[in-house]
Fold these 2 entries.
Entry 1:
Amino acid sequence: MIPIIKPLMDEAEANAAARVILSGWVTQGPEVAAFEKDFAAYTGAAHATAVSNCTTGLHLALLVAGVKAGDEVITVSHSYIATANSILYCGAKPVFVDVDADTMNMDPALIEAAITPKTKAILVVHQIGMPADMARIMPIARQHGLKVIEDAACAVGAELLWDGEWQKVGRVWGDVAVFSFHPRKIVSTGDGGMITTPHADWDAQFRLLRQHGMSVPDTVRHKANTVIFEEHPIMGYNYRMTDIQAAVGREQLKRLPGVVARRREIADRYRERLADAQWLGMPAEPAWARSNWQSFSVRLPDQADQREVMQAMLDKGISTRRGIMCAHREKVYSGSPLHAPLQNSEISQDKRIILPLYVQMTDADIDAVTDGLKKATK
Ligand SMILES: *Cc1c(COP(=O)(O)O)cnc(C)c1O
């Protein structure tokens, strides 16, 4: 059986968790601070704040961007539903624009027509690890005074060519980026998230908001030799990460460069092995982008039945997933303002499938997938 993904964790992660459990400090303490430092160093971000998951991180990012009830946020429907939900958490409305058919990322040409006097921000997704076209999105955002939030849930290790150099997602080309450490992503802490930003004042707000709006963190009170009384100047949330998760995350981060390199090799082999299957569409990687290949998504021919192809592969012991789902087709979003037809988003959900991709895959596994896919679609 070839699964869609296999987590890469062993004694290194287990020992890190054990070390924290035996240390006497298990939440938002020294390990979280160290993980934030490691993560900022890896991405090149000025500031990094750990949170409980990517969805809570997106909520805080939108709040600090000033998104309030009645505002509009331009985003894509073609994403995990948490992207749009984080906008609803603020009482704001997601305004969906379509994606580019080949990169599956927000089509910058459609943004301007979606802007209204109520638009506050753009929530752009680096979908399944492919960087979005920030060089075209940022000038539009700045011209209209919009904040830009990057949903980088799947994109740790992905890179964008910016000012003539390759920069990591999370360095932040907009105002803030948010990552997920769910096991379906490339770095996992079980659950977990990270917010990176170039703005020191935003980072200070994230730290307040993730811990009940409390003015003095536990770590500071614990070390003080004078009594300190904390205050709660604003309403916050409990969006903390535990030290157990952070210690696991630090081990995962050490593996990341090797993991990304291997994932790129596997993606290359997929392309090579599928080169003779002209009826299949390969994922596009623009010259200015380097995906981390969190997922490898293939476009099926128009006449192919997605479910039948997936079933034929499953019968051969190969697990696949359908394309990224569209939020606007879910009941929660049936009343959302849809600015334009979302044709590419819908086609991508209905006519793409995601292939297995994990570093423990052998070349024989990859070939079994490509052979199975060709037979199931020819
Ligand atoms: C996984 C994912 C999320 C949600 O991440 P959690 O850590 O599970 O909250 C949000 N956006 C995108 C694009 C995702 O893929």
Entry 2:
Amino acid sequence: MAIPYEVKLLIAIYVILWTRADPVMCQTYESSVAAKHEQWMSQYGRSYADEAEKEKRFKIFMENFEYIEKFNNAENKSYKLGLNQFSDLTEQEFMASYTGLKIPTTPSTVITTLNLSNVPTSLDWREQGAVTAVKDQSPCGACWAFSVVAAVEGIVQIKTKNLMSLSEQQLVDCVSGKEGCWGGFMNDAFNYIIRNKGICTETDYPFQHVKGTCNKDKEAAPAAQITGFQKVPPNNEQQLLQAVAMQPVTVAIFIDKNFSAYKSGIYDGPCQPTSKHAVAIVGYGTSEDGITKYWLIKNSWGGDWGEGGYMKLRREVPDQPQGVCGVNKEAYYPTIN
Ligand SMILES: *[C@@H]1O[C@H](CO)[C@@H](O)[C@H](O)[C@H]1NC(C)=O
Ligand SMILES: *[C@@H]1O[C@H](CO)[C@@H](O)[C@H](O)[C@H]1NC(C)=O
Ligand SMILES: *[C@@H]1O[C@H](CO)[C@@H](O)[C@H](O)[C@H]1NC(C)=O
């Protein structure tokens, strides 16, 4: 006896629904995030002391994961967020260990107005060979050292044609005060390099992720030197543009949770002034559609963060002289006579 057409159809629908629905039905939402967490742990080589710690970290991971998914789905933004090495940290933990910039209350820096007339429409100092590979400060609040070193590496290459990776550890160990991994001032770093008549290479004085004792022998044999530094006239984007047209520039920037999870695109905030961070601007450009202008930011959170360690940060926002995330407020560049 032939099976009636209707019955065949019902069986077919049942089979399709059954095979399709099954994997979804046996996996709860939480277990799928748990699997993501496991995968993330192996990708970033993370392990936890015990089950209680793992449970706690998983909860934070799940919150961060949900935040990222929600942001990427709902927000009509020019940038995307993504998982990275910070995804099992709370915002407070993250800010405590991966930033570290202090701003002097009594500025004593020289500010010179720049008068460059022919500033190119776009520029990438990486293409000029003036930028070393992205570094990783973690977990040490020494952004102040990394951003200053990036600017020094830039001017040294521009003046000597020799790109040298220079030592953040020397600044962490030798710049006086309680700075080190607990945050520091960019101007103290410049003043130290000038006083010491130079800074060692990264290979000679490599990064240790903690503050140690200043190595006086290495300190006495620096590889590259600068003779001065200047502050860019603040809250003036044209001045910052002229400075970046000359060389990589170190800047202070306000950052928040969105900034820490940045994955790609042109970042335009909003930036809560949760914490201060320092990065280097190593170029600028305009989006492919020719509409949105951006700074090219070199960060010190390794190559997994953002676009291979870099961020595009929106520039030329009307009525925002301080710039997106306050980027136009504190900018410095080293000089070599
Ligand atoms: C998203 O932004 C684009 C460009 O600004 C705009 O055309 C579009 O209407 C926006 N969509 C929503 C859902 O807000
Ligand atoms: C730019 O011009 C101003 C005013 O003429 C001058 O004071 C300043 O030194 C100039 N800056 C540079 C870098 O030449
Ligand atoms: C992240 O961006 C969203 C959307 O633009 C914003 O509403 C939120 O306040 C930002 N989060 C933080 C922590 O600044």
